């Protein structure tokens, strides 16, 4: 199983980026999919998740700015990031839990991880 994240880059504050993550090796139709991020010198933190039933959850700092979505046919999860600020600068990781239906901010829930894609927001 492999998760491949893409879409990171350099953007000015107020701009937008769209991250994508495609899974290969198996399908995850009954699993949640999530995004985490890790800024330099900081712990990895939960950003957003979408469950199999399309219910979503976001960390407070991105609510109203980020939108997570999924496509079970393409086996992808996408994070649309708008109104970016320098505080959003981080490596972003997609993740899938080890248990169907499990979802939440705890890192230990997640068994499969992508390699990370770097987002840099300049002021």
- By oligomeric state, this entry counts as single chain
Number of strands: 11
Which residue ranges are poorly predicted, with pLDDT under 50 across at least 5 consecutive positions?
none
Number of discrete helical segments: 0
- Helical amount: under 10%
Main sheet makeup: 7 strands, mixed
Instruction: From the alpha carbons, calculate the radius of gyration and give it in angstroms.
Output: 13 Å
First-last Cα distance:
37 Å
The average pLDDT is: 96
Structural class: mainly beta
Shape: globular
Search tags:
123 residues; mainly beta; seven-stranded mixed β-sheet; four-stranded antiparallel β-sheet; globular
Mind sketching the topology for me?
Layout: E1 2-6, E2 9-12, E3 17-24, E4 33-38, E5 45-50, E6 56-58, E7 66-71, E8 76-81, E9 90-97, E10 110-113, E11 117-122
Could you characterize what this model shows?
- There is one protein chain.
- The chain is mainly β and 123 residues long.
- It has strands spanning 2-6, 9-12, 17-24, 33-38, 45-50, 56-58, 66-71, 76-81, 90-97, 110-113, 117-122.
- It is globular and about 40 Å long.
In short:
With 123 residues, the protein is mainly β. It has strands spanning 2-6, 9-12, 17-24, 33-38, 45-50, 56-58, 66-71, 76-81, 90-97, 110-113, 117-122. The strands form two sheets. Strands 2, 4, 5, 6, 9, 10 and 11 form a seven-stranded mixed β-sheet that branches.
């Amino acid at each position: 199983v492999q998760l491949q994240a893409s879409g990171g880059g350099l953007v000015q504050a107020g701009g937008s980026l769209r991250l994508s993550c495609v899974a290969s090796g198996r399908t995850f139709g009954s699993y949640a999919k999530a995004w985490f991020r890790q800024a330099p010198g900081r712990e990895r933190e939960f950003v957003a998740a979408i469950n199999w039933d399309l219910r979503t959850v976001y960390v407070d700092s991105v609510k109203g700015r980020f939108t997570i979505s999924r496509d079970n046919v393409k086996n992808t999860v996408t994070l649309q990031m708008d109104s970016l600020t320098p505080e959003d600068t981080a490596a972003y990781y997609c993740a899938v839990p080890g248990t169907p239906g499990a979802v939440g901010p705890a890192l230990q829930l997640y068994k499969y991880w992508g390699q990370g894609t770097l987002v840099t927001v300049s002021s």
